[in-house]
């Protein structure tokens, strides 16, 4: 089974891109399932079910969603194998822009949209920098010049990635994306022992453990201060 990890900031159109890409796979008789990771709420699973796609979802609640992802992806992968999928797509939102749910030797896709701001590619961090493919959406509501400048900024941040435009409404570009994601010769047998491409943030402090009071005396563990004397 191929495992594909798709991530990106909220509301960039990840689910729409995945749905259109799976339409292409259905025409090729490729069996695809989806595991959706989110933080507090998602109804994207309903969209997948309406499209006839087998889906499971997990909500991290009070935990960091990317830590939650890596703690559960092995079981999700085993579920996909039992279901007999050819491809399992993992969809997750990188909520802090510091994490990356990508795994070495597993295809990694970052979805980002043209409306997020010209400097957004520099803000997203490893989720964009370490992706194999960067999908840019919402290109139909900006000018050609804006599309080209935005794509150039993405290329500057991740020069090794394949950058492509996909329209989540019409599906334009989704077939081309599907040809880049599935390769039967790259089936993964197990995730046991594999490594993430980027380390998770180190953030074990008193606030991680439930502290609510503000004050230096309550700040223990991994704490980092701003140098306000810097110009």
Automatic annotation (TrEMBL):
<feature type="domain" description="CobW/HypB/UreG nucleotide-binding">
    <location>
        <begin position="4"/>
        <end position="164"/>
    </location>
</feature>
<dbReference type="GO" id="GO:0008270">
    <property type="term" value="F:zinc ion binding"/>
</dbReference>
<dbReference type="InterPro" id="IPR004392">
    <property type="entry name" value="Hyd_mat_HypB"/>
</dbReference>
<dbReference type="GO" id="GO:0016151">
    <property type="term" value="F:nickel cation binding"/>
</dbReference>
<dbReference type="GO" id="GO:0051604">
    <property type="term" value="P:protein maturation"/>
</dbReference>
<dbReference type="Pfam" id="PF02492">
    <property type="entry name" value="cobW"/>
</dbReference>
<protein>
    <submittedName>
        <fullName>Ni2+-binding GTPase involved in maturation of urease and hydrogenase</fullName>
    </submittedName>
</protein>
<dbReference type="InterPro" id="IPR003495">
    <property type="entry name" value="CobW/HypB/UreG_nucleotide-bd"/>
</dbReference>
<dbReference type="GO" id="GO:0003924">
    <property type="term" value="F:GTPase activity"/>
</dbReference>
<dbReference type="InterPro" id="IPR027417">
    <property type="entry name" value="P-loop_NTPase"/>
</dbReference>
């Amino acid at each position: 089974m191929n495992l594909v990890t798709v991530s990106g900031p909220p509301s960039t159109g990840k689910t729409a891109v995945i749905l259109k890409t799976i339409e292409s796979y259905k025409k090729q008789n490729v069996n695809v399932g989806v595991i959706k990771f989110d933080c507090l709420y998602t109804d994207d699973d309903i969209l997948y079910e309406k499209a006839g796609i087998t889906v499971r979802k997990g909500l991290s609640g009070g935990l960091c969603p990317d830590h939650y992802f890596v703690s559960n992806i092995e079981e999700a992968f085993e579920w996909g194998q039992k279901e007999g999928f050819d491809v399992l797509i993992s969809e997750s939102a990188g909520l802090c822009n510091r994490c990356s749910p990508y795994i070495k030797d597993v295809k990694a896709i970052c979805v980002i949209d043209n409306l997020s701001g010209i400097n957004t590619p520099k803000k997203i961090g490893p989720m964009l920098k370490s992706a194999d493919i960067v999908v840019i959406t919402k290109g139909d509501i900006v000018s050609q010049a804006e599309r080209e400048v935005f794509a150039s900024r993405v290329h500057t941040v991740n020069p090794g990635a394949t950058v492509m435009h996909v329209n989540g409404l019409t599906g334009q570009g989704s077939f081309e994306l599907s040809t880049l994601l599935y390769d039967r010769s790259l089936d993964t047998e197990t995730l046991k022992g594999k490594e993430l491409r980027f380390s998770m943030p180190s953030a074990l402090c008193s606030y991680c453990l439930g502290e609510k009071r503000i004050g230096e005396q309550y700040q223990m563990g991994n704490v980092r201060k701003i140098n306000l004397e810097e110009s």
